[in-house]
Amino acid sequence: MFYSAMKLSVGSTLKLAFRPWVEGLENVPAEGPAILASNHLSFSDSFFLPAVLDRKVTFIAKAEYFTSPGVKGKLTAAFFKGVGQLPVDRSGARGAGEAAIKSGLEVLERGELFGIYPEGTRSPDGRLYRGKPGGLARVALRSGAPVIPVAMIDTEKIQPPGKVVPKLMRPGIRIGTPLDFSRYQGMDNDRFIQRAVTDEVMYAILKLSGQEYVDMYATAAKRQIAEAAKAAKIAEAAKGEGAAKGEGAAEKRTGQDEAGGNKAA
User: Fold this and answer.
1) What is the reported pTM?
2) How far apart are CA 212 and CA 210, in angstroms?
3) What does the pLDDT look like over 173-186, one tens digit per residue?
4) Is 129 exposed, middle or buried (0-12, 13-18, 19+ CB in 10 A)?
């Protein structure tokens, strides 16, 4: 009931304001379990995709969205629950992975749609990064549900980092044909099979999105970007300090010259 109300209010507002275009809606089954595996460009991805679907789709979200204190925290938690998001504690990598798998299987066992981002986090620069093996592959192989590749287009341009007011523009959503991995049934714990399944899904997303592909994890890319920014900040501070010292030395020399001139006079 709450999801329907939120979809009617939030979903209708998003569609009216941003007018997202969609291709491949016919690839989402009218009933039965299925996994929607999407690239991840923006926080808004989890809202635009459900907005254009007739069926409920459930994503997992970090537990912090559901446990923040105060009135704002309670409203945020209610909102995320209302739009079909499930909390997952990401404090431990292994624990988080198991929790995500368990949540996904429960959603699929109910015959519903489960949404997942194989990259594990938002892309830091709009490129498509290597999919993380384990979560997607294990849910797909244990459930037997088809995996439907999805490409979000231009959602990162609507509200770039640091921008408070979103830009009114049309994002796109391309939905590919379902992928069947029944040939790997019973092999969900084989890490080579996990990688093969994940790579096949990522290649399908790549073809749909047209993004540049980077053969590394997005989390590693974010660390590199953060370290580079930190190094640049330190270098800039050192440069400023060096300039200040240079100015101080110049002033000192000028003072000494003036003092010497006064003595000579």
Assistant:
1) 0.82
2) 7
3) 999 999 999 999 99
4) buried
pLDDT at 256 over 90: no
Nearest in space to 152 (alpha carbons), one of 23, 16, 9, 34: 23
SS3 for the chain, per residue? CHHHHHHHHHHHHHHHHHCCEEECHHHCCCCCCEEEEECCCCCCHHHHHHHHCCCCEEEEEECHHHHCCHHHHHHHHHHHHHCCEEEECCCCHHHHHHHHHHHHHHHHHCCCEEEECCCCCCCCCCCEECCCCCHHHHHHHHHCCCEEEEEEECHHHCCCCCCCCCCCCCCEEEECCCECCHHHCCCCCCHHHHHHHHHHHHHHHHHHHCCCEECCCHHHHHHHHHHHHHHHHHHHHHHHHHHHHHHHHHHHHHHHHHHHHHHHC
